[in-house]
Task: inverse folding
C-alpha cells in the first residue's frame, strides 16, 4: 500500500518501493470524467489526483487543464519565460547507457576543454545577454574532477549570475564544496524510475547504481543548493509510470526541503538518434497532458522544455505552464567556438537567443535572461 505522507519516508527510493504493489495503470483506467473534473477543481492535489490527471479519461479535459495550468503559472511566475543555454565542457564518459551517443563504447572523438577554451565559450555565450548557464559533462570523474569542476565554476561566475550543473552524481560534501565555488543549481535525471528497465539500459559504469542516482537530487538539496531539477527521459520506461514518479519525486523534494526550488523537465528521446529499437513514445498530445498534470500537481515548480523539441511545438507550450526554455543550444563540446566533438543529441529547435526573445515577446510573455544573483 503506498504511503499517504511521502515526506515521512527516509529517501525517494523508499517512496518508489512503497508503490510496488499498487497498480497505477489499474487505478488510472478506473477513473471517470467526474474524477477528472474533481481533480482539476482542487487547490491541492494528492498523488491519486495526479494519477487521475495522467489517466486516459483526462485526455477529454485537456482544455480545462490548460486553463487551470495557465492561471496557476501566471499566479506563481507571472507571464515570464526564463532562458538559458547549455555548455558542454567534456564528452568523456565511463558509463554505458544504451540510449546515448556519449556512451563509452562509442568510437567518437573525446575531448575535455581546458580553462581557456571554456572561458572562450563562456564569452561567446555571454554576448547573447544570457546570465543563466547549465554546465554539462559526460560522467567521467577522471576527465572532470570535482576540483576541476569547482575551478571552472569560479571562472564562469565572472560571466554569469547563475551557474547550474548537469554532470555525474556526487556526494553531499561535493555539492557543498561546489556551492562554495558558486554553483547554485543541480539537474539530474533519473532517466527511468523503473528498476528493471534501469538495469537493462545502464550496462556498465557507476551509473548502474540505481540507488545512488535516485537519491542524488536529495543530496543536492541537503547540501543547500538553491535549485534542484529532476526528470525522466521519456522513451525508456512506460510513459505514465515515468511521468507519475518524476512528478512525485519533485513533490517529495519540495515538501521536504522547503527552501529548495524544485524544477522538473520533460525531455523525450528522439527515436532517430538511439539504437534502442522499441521506445515508449510520448506523443505530442500526451506530452501536453503530462505538462498540464505536472503544473496542476506542482503549482510552484519550474517546468523546463529544451531544444530537443521542435520550435513550432515549443511556441504552443509558452502559455500553458512552461517556465524555462533553452535557447541557442549546442550539445557538443566547443559548440559555441571550436566544435571539438559530435553532438550528444540533435536539437530540433536551432533558433538563436535573439530569435527566442522575439518569440517569447510576441507571445505576450517577458523573456528573463537574469532573475538571480548571489547576494554579496
Ligand atoms: S547519458 Fe550521460 S552517463 Fe550515460 S552515456 Fe550519456 S553522457 Fe554518459
Result:
Amino acid at each position: 500500500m503506498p504511503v499517504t505522507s511521502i515526506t515521512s519516508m527516509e529517501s525517494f527510493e523508499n517512496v518508489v518501493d512503497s508503490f510496488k504493489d499498487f497498480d497505477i495503470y489499474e487505478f488510472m483506467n478506473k477513473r471517470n470524467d467526474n474524477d477528472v473534473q474533481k481533480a482539476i477543481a482542487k487547490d491541492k492535489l494528492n498523488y491519486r489526483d495526479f494519477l487521475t490527471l495522467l489517466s486516459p479519461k483526462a485526455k477529454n479535459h485537456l482544455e480545462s487543464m490548460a486553463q487551470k495550468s495557465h492561471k496557476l503559472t501566471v499566479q506563481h511566475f507571472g507571464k515570464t519565460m526564463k532562458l538559458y543555454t547549455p555548455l558542454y565542457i567534456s564528452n568523456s564518459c565511463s558509463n554505458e547507457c544504451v540510449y546515448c551517443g556519449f556512451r563509452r563504447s562509442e568510437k567518437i572523438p573525446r575531448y575535455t576543454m581546458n580553462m581557456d577554451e571554456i572561458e572562450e565559450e563562456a564569452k561567446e555565450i555571454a554576448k547573447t545577454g544570457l546570465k543563466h548557464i547549465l554546465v554539462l559533462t559526460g560522467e567521467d570523474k577522471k576527465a572532470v574532477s570535482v576540483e576541476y569542476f569547482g575551478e571552472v565554476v569560479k571562472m564562469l561566475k565572472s560571466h554569469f549570475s547563475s551557474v547550474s550543473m548537469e554532470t555525474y552524481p556526487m556526494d553531499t560534501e561535493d555539492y557543498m564544496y561546489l556551492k562554495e565555488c558558486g554553483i547554485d543549481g543541480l539537474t539530474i535525471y533519473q532517466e527511468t524510475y523503473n528498476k528493471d528497465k534501469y538495469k537493462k539500459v545502464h550496462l556498465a559504469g557507476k551509473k548502474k547504481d540505481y540507488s545512488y542516482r535516485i537519491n542524488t537530487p536529495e543530496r543536492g538539496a541537503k547540501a543547500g543548493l538553491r535549485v534542484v531539477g529532476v526528470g525522466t527521459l521519456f522513451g525508456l520506461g512506460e510513459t505514465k509510470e515515468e511521468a507519475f514518479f518524476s512528478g512525485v519525486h519533485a513533490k517529495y523534494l519540495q515538501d521536504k526541503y522547503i527552501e529548495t526550488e524544485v524544477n522538473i523537465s520533460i525531455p523525450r528521446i528522439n527515436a532517430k538518434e538511439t539504437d534502442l529499437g522499441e521506445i515508449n513514445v510520448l506523443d505530442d498530445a500526451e506530452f501536453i497532458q503530462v505538462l498540464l498534470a505536472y503544473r496542476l500537481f506542482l503549482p510552484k515548480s519550474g517546468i523546463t522544455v529544451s531544444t530537443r523539441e521542435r520550435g513550432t511545438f515549443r511556441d504552443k507550450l509558452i502559455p500553458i505552464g512552461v517556465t524555462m526554455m533553452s535557447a541557442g543550444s549546442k550539445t557538443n563540446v566547443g559548440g559555441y567556438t571550436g566544435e571539438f566533438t559530435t553532438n550528444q543529441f540533435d536539437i530540433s529547435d536551432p533558433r538563436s537567443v535573439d530569435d527566442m526573445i522575439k518569440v517569447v515577446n510576441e507571445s505576450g510573455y517577458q523573456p528573463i535572461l537574469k532573475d538571480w544573483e548571489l547576494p554579496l
Q: What stands out?
A: The pocket of iron/sulfur cluster is lined by residues 93, 95, 97, 100, 102-103, 138-139, 207 (CB under 6 Å).
